[in-house]
Design brief:
The chain is an alpha/beta fold and about 300 residues long. Strand 9 and strand 10 form a beta hairpin.
Length: about 300
């Protein structure tokens, strides 16, 4: 794993401890409910803790997707054999997206910045980097902080990526984050926000919202605001992304749902089979899609 040789000036207020950059107000950040929730989730998220005890003879050594899961969606469209100077990943977790892009798409970069609020997930990110060496030779910056303010210079990033993250961020904070993305993105830069917004028209979300309102004291701390495609377009435009990236699209995901597959942790019988069997007509896809992705065009 390549060590940083010239840390950006805006990281000067961060302390490097065991490979992770921590902000000066980290003790205060650890007191927030949002961070405490994600630190707890991060300890077992997607089975990522298995990397701690993986054996040399394990099949996972040869096929990392057995542990991380196979990514789809917009990533399937990502071109092969591309190279950029700098990548910023928001909500990087333990590295599912960079592993896929490096190993399956041969994406290369000189600098990778991974921001996540969960310290356990960043610790796993370092282990996955050591184990599978995604983006070989790149300078590697795992940053543990809230994504509301990005500790990076203006016009410094070529490609911003995120996978299934923005639906976890409160609306006001997300708007600030989008403005920050526009600030750090280079003119003509690119972004991919895969499966990043929940669809407010999706029947499954409507049912979930109704159930949540029945118990206003116990609100889901993870899945927050949902959006229409028009609202996402407005969100991106207001942030200033059009000034940096002239062409982008917002499109519904290919996962559809009319029923929640779980309600308060309880499996809804047949819901998964019913949702997976849905093959909506073109006019209904926007209404039945579980969420939306947004990405610059061409992708890269």
């Amino acid at each position: 794993m390549s060590s940083p040789t010239n840390v950006q000036l805006s990281l000067n207020n961060f302390e490097l401890i065991e490979g992770i950059y921590f902000p000066s107000d980290y003790a205060q950040l650890t007191q927030t409910k949002h961070k405490q929730t994600w630190d707890k989730i991060g300890k077992t998220y997607y089975g990522s803790q298995k990397i701690d005890t993986i054996e040399e003879t394990s099949a996972i050594k040869q096929d990392y997707t057995l542990l991380t899961g196979k990514l789809g969606g917009t990533w399937d469209k990502f071109p092969l054999n591309k190279s950029v100077d700098s990548i910023l990943e928001l909500g990087c977790g333990y590295g599912r997206a960079p592993l896929h892009l490096s190993k399956d798409k041969n994406l290369q970069c000189q600098k990778y910045y991974g921001i996540d609020i969960s310290e356990p997930l960043l610790q796993r990110l370092i282990k996955f980097k050591q184990e599978y060496d995604f983006f070989p030779g790149a300078e590697f910056f795992p940053i543990c902080t809230s994504a509301e303010i990005l500790p990076l210079e203006d016009n410094s990033i070529d490609l911003v990526i995120s996978n299934c993250v923005f639906m976890h961020i409160p609306d006001a904070q997300l708007r600030k984050l989008m403005a920050e993305i526009a600030r750090v993105l280079k003119p003509g830069g690119m972004f991919v926000f895969n499966h990043s917004f929940h669809n407010k028209a999706c029947p499954s979300h409507i049912v979930h919202n109704f159930i949540r309102k029945l118990n206003p004291v116990s609100r889901n701390p993870i899945y927050l605001k949902q959006y229409s495609s028009g609202e996402i377009e407005e969100l991106l435009a207001e942030a200033g992304l059009k000034a940096k990236c002239l062409e982008y699209v917002v499109e519904p995901t290919k996962e559809y749902a009319i029923l929640p597959e779980k309600i308060k942790g309880v499996v809804v019988p047949f819901a998964k089979a019913i949702n997976h069997s849905l093959k909506p007509a073109e006019a209904q896809k926007t209404n039945l899609a579980y969420g939306f992705s947004a990405y610059s065009t061409p992708l890269i």
